Every structure is written in structure tokens, then in C-alpha cells.
Amino acid sequence: MHCPPLYTFAPASLPPLLTCSLPTRRYGLSYNSFLIGTPVLATGSLSAVPANSTIEIDVPVTNNSTDIDGTTVVQLYFSQDVAPVIRYQQQLVRYAKVAVPAGTTVTVRMKVKVSDMAFFDGKEAKTLPGKPGWSLGPLPTSFTLMAGESAGEGGDLPSMRITVV
Predict the structure, then answer these.
(1) Burial (CB count <10 Å: 0-12, 13-18, 19+), residue 116
(2) If you average pLDDT over residues 13-41, what whole number do you get?
(3) In angstroms, rounded to a whole number, what is the distance separating the alpha carbons of residues 117 and 80?
(4) Domain boundaries of the chain, sorted by first residue
(5) ω before 132 within 30° of 0 (cis)?
């Protein structure tokens, strides 16, 4: 739907301004309330993850609404517990849009390459295979993985810790 053009003539010659009615849209708003659970390793309880591996993270998502099916975006963030360089407090590493029927829980599985959590240091000595200049820092190192609908939830995101060797 297009609105008629606005004219810049004298006010008496203007058509009424309310001749155009645009549909009301609700971007980003939901009638649902979702609970994002604590992320867990899908492959079980590993004490150490190799630096060249891919891990699978399961995140439970519950639709607390009893009568309305809904859709949400689950975001997975990471932070390096002790980093050799200054890094962001939280960095987005994966996200997934998921439909959750009313009153149920769905598990979202996300694959994360450990090398996706690397930083660029430009030194060839500590680089990751296939990523020249990128490093995880001195190994072993630990990362915290956090899941939520938004980074704006602060430090209240459900989290888990992995150690990379």
C-alpha cells in the first residue's frame, strides 16, 4: 500500500493528511514468554576439548505460554575466562531461530568450531591449523558459553564452561 504524495503548497490546497492508513506491524514483539535453559555439551561431559574440534551444544527452550505457539531466537555467546589480550565480555558465536509449541520444551543443537572463538594476534608460532595468525592463547584455556535471547540480559545468562587443550 502506498500513501499519496504530500504537497508543499498552501494549507488550503492540501488534501487531508489522514487519507492513508498503513497496517500496524509488531516487529520483535511476542505474546510468548520463553525460558532459555542451561547449555550442555551434546557429546556428554568432556573435561577437555581439542583446539581443532567442533563441539555440539544443546540448549533447552521452554514456551511458558499455555495457549500460543511461538518462535524465538536463541543466541550463544562465549567469553574467554583468562585471555592474553583484551576481548569483549561476550561475543556472539551462534544463533538459531526455533519454533516452540505452547507449553512445551524444545532442545536446540548448535555446532561451534573451537577455532571460531580464536582472536587475531598475527604471530605465526601459535596459530590454529588453517587459520594463519589466529590463536586461542596459551593452552589449556577455558571458555564460558552462555545462552539467551539477548546479550542485554547481562550476567544472568545460563552458562557452562569448557576447557580447550
Answers:
(1) middle
(2) 66
(3) 8
(4) 31-164
(5) no
The grid coordinates listed for 47 are 573435561
Strand partners, 61: 36, 106
**Range among 3-7, 108-112, 161-165 rated most confident:** 108-112
What spatial distance separates the first Cα and last Cα of the chain, rounded to whole Å?
A: 58
Question: pTM of the prediction?
Answer: 0.76
For 16, the grid coordinates are 487531508
C-alpha 118/C-alpha 134 separation (Å) is 6
Angle CA(150)–CA(143)–CA(58) in degrees, nearest 5? 60
Three-state DSSP class for residue 117: helix
User: 141-148 and 105-113 as β-strands: parallel, antiparallel, unpaired?
Assistant: unpaired
31-164, which class in CATH? Answer: mainly beta
- Mean per-residue pLDDT, 132-150: 89
Query: Which tens digits make up the pLDDT trace of 86-102?
Result: 888 889 999 999 999 99
Contact 115, 137 (CB under 8 A): no
Cα 130 to Cα 114: distance, rounded to the nearest angstrom = 13
